[in-house]
UniProtKB/TrEMBL annotation:
Secretion signal span: 1-27
Main location: other
GO cellular component term, pick one: lysosome
Designated name of the protein: Beta-glucuronidase
Activity regulation text: Inhibited by L-aspartic acid.
Species annotation: Pycnonotus jocosus (Red-whiskered bulbul)
Keywords tagged on the record: Glycoprotein, Glycosidase, Hydrolase, Lysosome, Signal
UniProt keyword Hydrolase present: yes
Amino acid sequence: MALAASCRRRVGLCPLLLLFLPGLAAGAAGMLQPRDTPSRERKELGGLWSFRADLSPGRDAGFSQRWYRRPLRQTGPVIDMPVPASFNDITQDPSLENYIGWVWYEKEVLLPPRWLQGDPAPRVVLRFGSAHYYSIVWVNGVQVVEHEGGHLPFEADISSVVQGSPGSLCRITVALNNTLTPHTLPPGSIQYMTDKSRYPKNYFVQNIKFDFFNYAGIHRPVVLYTTPAAYIDDITVTTTSSDSVAMVQYQVSVVGSTANSLSLSLRDQEGKVVAAGDGPVGELKVLNPNLWWPYLMHENPGYLYSLEVQMQAQVGGVLLQDVYTLPVGIRTVHVTSTQFLINGRPFYFHGVNKHEDADIRGKGLDWPLIVKDFNLLRWLGANSFRTSHYPYAEEIMDLCDAYGIVVINESPGVGIKLPESFGNKSLQHHLAVMEELVRRDKNRPSVVMWSVANEPASELPLAAYYFKTVIAHTKALDPSRPVTFVTDANYALDHGAPYVDVICVNSYLSWYHDSGHLEVIPLQLTAQFENWYKTYQKPIIQSEYGADAVPGLHSDPPVMFSEEYQQAMLRAYHSVFDKKRKEYVIGELIWNFADFMTSQGTTRVFGNKKGIFTRQRQPKAAAFVLRDRYWKIANESSCLPPVITSHSLFL
């Protein structure tokens, strides 16, 4: 979705002036998900943190007064703020709901004494699952890391700071800025309102070109974890398979010392070792493998092996051992001119687009909500979703791997509309974001395709070089997966489409144009598909379609915003899908799984209402239309017995 929005605040200096400060950038090392192993410990820092928004005219008091040098409570009034959560909807303060600028978080933690002892002592790492948008982190007053981007993890080795401090108290301070510029992902812009007869002094708006609320805060878990001084830094796994044998190619990197020995064991779900190897690079041969299959495509979807990597290394005359276990799914992905193949079999995406969004917590990770959403997905018969319009939490991705839910993994490249957002500064940041995303999710079997952007202004000539470069870079990072971006441009004007492997098209026929005229859908949608395929000879996914429906609003004959209109629009689209999926249409993803919050505007009454579920996860009438359809498609294409229906699973 792409709709202009703005957040209005009275401030002094533009907070953008404070965004880019010199410091320690987040490194390009491995980004293995923290796990408890025989050699590693983890301490989660969720709960209440101290919080203070910088309300000074220039939003710069925190830096000029060096709030990071002492406990935050000594700098002025603080409040409790839950982590993970967005800060916007937690309080009754309307100025915080739409606040733009720097906010400050702090947490004091006692470290286990064993983390600070030994020769060599363990390595202590501070890791953030995500914080939106720009973060600067101090530990005991010492800056340890900066990170740009609101949807991917970053970390810092804080061993020298905490092991050199008296006692075991660790004070973590975070300065966080949610300002968006033309060169951030997603982009935004600051517009000053200079008419003093209408606006107060220094009044500005934060303009955005995307249709979801710009929630901010520490959105995902913060953890401290340890490794030995010499440790396994990164693991890369790719797989190939046939009916009777699979090959698991691996590459392991070690930091801190040259490993004396490096051994690998691949275990099945019963704990049996099915393959073993040694050395930093190699391949494991698995006989009669259990392949990773999508949900509803196999009676045992989401099968995961466990790859245990053990390293031994000498450091200062001491023998150190590190152990890391990585879930591994064996599956292949291949794209033809008309099909998307998983393990050599045609796969049809019947799924949803989502958002990380809920009442009160905003984009903050919430386990009850996550589990509820997956139960609804399986009830619905959905086999896939796109991470619209940013990478989702690792905890969500873990469940996709385990449940067999297929993922189109999208970068935060949404709202790229201005010509200046296609320049070199933006391009370099976009390339860096794709590196971070691929580094985090490269080993996930659920991720079958990367999406580098959603609804950019790809009709601009600048888009040709931009997307050619981003897509080529992503393919170089990961040659094993196809790459796309999601377009709403005219097929004849799109400068980025020549470089994608799969055409993903968004269209809202009878909604944003020809409003209320459902009768135009068959003709226009058929022409849409035929024009795209004739031009590019690539398979097509209808990556967005849908209509707003206010829960409980009914009308027969259907009128816009009623539940009946949402049902009728879906059925009109489905009639065309059923014809074209016999040819080259390989998927359909409804917009949206659930209602979600947006910025205020005359077209949005308390958010976007295109969900088939409400924001509280209650079904609208359209959910039952989609459920019947998805289970019918699943039974047509599945190798499972036809007795499996929507009423026999996940009720």
